[in-house]
Design brief:
Layout lengths: L15 H54 L12 E4 L11 E7 L15 E10 L6 E9 L10 E7 L1 E9 L1 H4 L7 E2 H4 L4 E9 L6 E9 L8 H11 L6 E5 L11 E4 L7 E2 L9
Parallel strand pairs: 10-12
Antiparallel strand pairs: 1-2, 1-7, 2-3, 3-4, 4-5, 6-8, 8-9, 10-11
Length: 279
């Protein structure tokens, strides 16, 4: 269109098609930006949930492993205990219980109260707050072993969101690495290895992670057992050189060594294995 006064072309307005194309481009740009932001938020929440679940599982596994590393060893069986209580049949998940006598680095009560033994009953179990409530890992500590090792002391939740706890033990020497879901050192002897598997969820319950720890328990021969083994070895003769194996925590009578004969050479191996089948 030509302006009649000065001969210049009048400015042209946007057509409807141009407006629709422009609006479409803007909508697509906004949608792409929103989708990218949404994906970033979901990725952040996913990473946060997975990290939280892993942190909870790792914290629980490390707490249990620390107490297993401090299992008390004493010539008196009353001060040595490793017990795994399997979860009841029909449980929605593995909820084993672990009970040990462990050396604790600090007292559980104030100094104004009665004196405490350096060996304490330590028990772990999963507790649900209420029907459908959150699951928690509880730790019970009773300073000083007593006649009732399954109760007493101070119990408190230590880790939130622990969905399952699996405990297994083995006597690698006696059972060729076979793992058992239940164990009682009063009957099976002190295990050589205890395997802990913990599964935990984040606060939302959408993500879960599993952490496993395998703890080797010190099974050095008890004081006096080497003297008894030496006497037994001196009393048993052989045509060739003799060897002996000492079980430091064996429940066999007298902790006696097992003598054997070899074709050549002589040696003495000091071990600490206790077979599950020995009492």
């Amino acid at each position: 269109m030509i302006n009649g006064t000065d001969g210049r072309r009048a400015p042209r307005a946007f057509t409807l098609i141009e407006l629709i194309v422009a609006l479409t481009i803007v909508v697509m740009a906004v949608a792409a930006t929103g989708l990218a932001i949404s994906d970033a938020v979901r990725a952040r929440d996913s990473i946060k949930g997975r990290v939280e679940a892993f942190t909870r599982a790792e914290t629980a596994a490390n707490l249990i492993a620390a107490d297993l590393l401090n299992v008390a060893r004493d010539s008196d069986p009353a001060f040595t205990l490793v017990r795994i209580i399997p979860s009841p049949a029909g449980a929605p998940s593995e909820r084993d219980e672990l009970l040990v006598l462990a050396n604790i680095p600090r007292a559980t009560r104030s100094l104004d109260e009665q004196g405490e033994s350096p060996v304490a009953e330590v028990q772990y179990r999963i507790v649900q707050e209420a029907a459908g409530g959150a699951l928690q890992l509880w730790r019970r500590v009773d300073a000083g072993p007593d006649d009732v090792v399954e109760g007493g002391g101070v119990a408190a939740p230590v880790v939130e969101g622990v969905a399952s706890l699996s405990c297994q033990a083995t006597d690698a020497e006696g059972d060729a690495g076979e793992w058992f879901d239940d164990w009682d050192s009063d009957y099976d002897g002190v295990p050589t290895l205890v395997r802990i598997t913990v599964t935990a969820t984040d606060a939302s319950g959408r993500y879960e992670k599993t952490v496993r720890r395998t703890v080797a328990i010190d099974r050095t021969p008890l004081i006096g057992s080497s003297i008894l083994d030496a006497e037994d070895e001196a009393g048993s003769g052989g045509n060739n050189a003799n060897g002996s194996t000492t079980g430091g925590n064996s429940n066999n009578a007298g902790n006696s060594g097992t003598s054997g004969s070899g074709s050549s050479g002589s040696g003495s191996v000091s071990g600490s294995g206790a077979s599950r089948t020995s009492c």
